[in-house]
Amino acid sequence: MKRYLILSDGSVFEGEAIGADGETVGEVVFTTAMVGYMETLTDPSYYGQIVTHTFPLIGNYGAIEADSESEAPALKGYVVREECGVGSNFRKENELDGFLKKHGIVGICGVDTRALTKKIRSKGVMNGIITSKKTLSPEKLKELKAYRVKDAVLNTTCKEERTLGNGSKRVVLWDFGAKANIERELLKRDCTVIRVPAHTKAERIYELKPDGIMLTNGGGDPADNTDIIEELKKVNEYRIPTFGICLGHQLLALSRGASTSKLKFGHRGANQPVRDSVTGRTYITSQNHGYAVVRDSLPADAVLRYTNANDKTAEGIDYSAIPAFSVQFHPEACGGPLDTNFLFDRFMELMQK
Known about the structure:
This protein has 353 residues and is of the alpha/beta class. The protein has ten helices and 19 strands. A ten-stranded mixed beta sheet has the order 10-12-11-13-14-19-18-17-15-16, sandwiched between helices. Strand 13 (212-218), helix 8 (226-237) and strand 14 (242-245) form a beta-alpha-beta unit. Helix 8 packs across helix 9.
């Protein structure tokens, strides 16, 4: 069955239907990751977005739900060049198309994803609709242009507090739409992980008597989370060792007085180069974000340690007035390079001190 991806600038990309029936509106973004499509599909940071793969063949090892980073996909739609209908892997539980249908994800294959990516790269991210109609009514076009990703954290955070593990260090994992591997990395390091919802109050976090606080990844515009930022300001006063990843990195910066801005097309993929200003070393990192901390807005106690080697955006900050540091990239990295996994060990050392 024919399907079309129509962008808000009027561009039309023709393809074939995969996944669930229906149509969907979202912010169209692309990821350059060559592996790990199951992790991409289930990364909560893609909430509200239509995800395009630059890698041309997706689905070649089927669907393996054990590799999921959350209980269900949060993205709005899925775009691929070629969908492999019969995956080959001994761990396979389903095919890609069956996985998309199971979770109600509308998709399209056979799209010229190279042309689509070049358009987004030159014009910036824009809204799109995956539909069976080649033209849109004035009402639908108005809806498409007005679309905005909102309430991403509210819709991807955990619903209630829970505790996992029985380790020597108590870590509050403040869940803004967390990838599962962040929790796994902490459990591997002998931590008791207390996962709390995004709108948990500062007083409750203090009552839990944590040795450290993990601020997780998540989706949407970080500046929208005004209530969380206010609670984080209070938590900073407790001087509990804190480690922020992705959205957690941005929220920590906002709580310290910095600002954030939207990138033209974001950083999404497993091949983003990041330079460490202390050691001079460059790491290849996994990333998924459309916003960045504005470098010139950093407070006096913030030291910009990591920068993106391509566009010089802020990738990691160390704070001197509070025991905290944060990174824009994903050191837990599933799927992707594990070059910066040592940052979890740095967090353990910070708690030990």
